[in-house]
Hints:
Elements: E1 4-14, H1 15-21, H2 24-30, H3 33-41, H4 45-66, E2 79-82, E3 88-91, E4 99-106, E5 110-120
Antiparallel strand pairs: 1-5, 2-3, 4-5
Amino acid sequence: MTSTINRLGIDLVxxxxxxxxxxxxxxxRILSSNEHRRYEAIKDADRKLQFLAGRFAAxxxxxxxxxTFESPLNFSDVDxxxxxxxxxxxxxxxxxxxxxxVSISHTKHHAVxxxxxxxxxxxxxxxxLKL
Length: 131
Ligand SMILES: CC(C)(COP(=O)(O)OP(=O)(O)OC[C@H]1O[C@@H](n2cnc3c(N)ncnc32)[C@H](O)[C@@H]1OP(=O)(O)O)[C@@H](O)C(=O)NCCC(=O)NCCS
C-alpha cells in the first residue's frame, strides 16, 4: 500500500544582508542557468535582488522540507520557472518523483518562501537524495 509523506519548509531572506554579500559567485551558486538568464534580463536593481532573494528563500525552504540530504545539494541544479500566470514552478533533479509546491513573496526588505513536498512512501528511501 502506498501513502503520502508531506514535508514542509519555510525560509526568510533579509534583502539588505543578501545585498551586502552579493557577488557573481554567490549568484551563480544560487541560480540555475535558466534563472540566471532571467536575472540578467532584469534592469531594475531592486527587482533583481528580489528575484534572487525569492529563489534563494525557495531553495532554502526546499532543503528544509527534507531536513537532510545524503549528498550535498547544489542550489544551481534546482530551477524555479514560472507558469503562464506567473506562479513559481520548482523542478529538481533531487527526488524528482516527488511533487513540489512552492510559493514566494517579497517586500522591499524581505523575501519569504514556503515549500510543500509530497513524497510517495513506496519511493521514500533515505539514499534517494542523490542525483
Ligand atoms: C500575482 C500576485 C499573487 C503577486 O502578489 P504580490 O503581493 O503583488 O507580490 P508578492 O511579492 O507577494 O509575490 C510575488 C511572487 O508571487 C509569485 N507569483 C506571481 N504570480 C503568481 C500567481 N499567479 N500565483 C502564485 N504565485 C504567483 C511569484 O513567485 C512572484 O515572485 P517572482 O516574480 O520573484 O517569482 C498578485 O498580483 C495577485 O494576487 N494576483 C492575482 C489576483 C489578481 O489578478 N488581482 C488583480 C485583480 S484586478
